[in-house]
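Below sits our specimen:

——
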Amino acid sequence: MASLPIFLVGFLVLSCVAIAMQRNLDESDIVMEEGELLGLFDVIGSLLDEPGWAEVHPEPCTNTPWPGIECEIGQDPPIFHVTAIHIGPDVATPPCQPSAKISDSLLKLPYLRTLSIFNCFVTSTVILSPTLFGALSSLEHLSLQSNPSLSGNVPPSLGNLTRLRILSLSQNNLQGNIPGEFGWLVNLEQLDLSYNNLSGEIPQEIEGLKSLAILELSSNGLTGVLPFALGQLQHLQKVDLCSNRIHGKIPPELGKLNSFSGCGLIGPIPNSLSSLKNLTALSLDNNTLTGTIPSNLGSLPNLDQLNLSHNKLSGELLLPQDFINRLGKRLDVRGNNGLCTSYHLASNISTYLQTRTCLGNEGKVDNLTCPQPYDIKGKKPSWYNGSRTSSFAPSKAPQLILICFLLFNMLSFL
């Protein structure tokens, strides 16, 4: 009786092996549709510097694969479809050809979901075709990065690709405006247009990007006012607008940010930032921000970098001591002439907290000197620079020196 279970186990093992072998055999018999295969050969041939690529990889989804291509088996009929193409330095062989271009044969790859081309267009000028990129309806991820010869305008037709989740066109030579049609990309989670030559304003239609989590627009020539539409994007986690000519106030509500960088900003730092519990980095340096630094920023549990340097902030720095100690050099408030630090805090802080000591704290005065006398209009009286009038006789000067000396000694004992 004991032999029966052993027999059954052996039978099941052999059956599984046979099924697996049959499945592998079936997959090896699956081919690509001829039109799609020829389209792939044309797309790769227009990019890579290897004229015989098609002969080396006649079955790119099965027997002769290439690391920059991914395929999946479709249903009814069960044939292979190309779903991803990646060209970049990490796929080093073969390199891009000097006259690399984007072929219209991409339209023969209707199942393509990912297209990424890095550091390929470096000599010959390449322009993004509006008709081509508006018709790749299956695309979910489009990354064309670090291509110095990729120029022209950003095609408004990209707004038709409503399945897009990632659109990255950074570090190219693109010009013109950000298309308002981008507001149709309701599934877009990441938009990176940084390091180009874009101009104009951030379109108000950006409020349509309801799924947007990352917005990278730094290092362009964008102008205009910071749109309050950003405050309507409830999934935003990171915003970088630096190195533009954008100006305006920070929107009071900025979703669930964990990183914000902006230049050209004015007005106070809104207290509402303290509600962004996911905020990990806040860079507001080199702006014209005014007012005080909200102390409740120190209560943000995940904030690990705070740069408020080179603004017009004023008042006493009231961030909690444990917050200051935790951030160390990652807290930078230099270049705010109206900002001061209590004597208590000033005795043990980072050089990135270069501020003057607040007057009247711990019995100390700024720089341990008597404050310079000013009249109520903020101007120095005539006697301060040596000229004296009849209302302030020279005989009174020794008394003033004595009063200042006594005051200084009295304060030193407090």
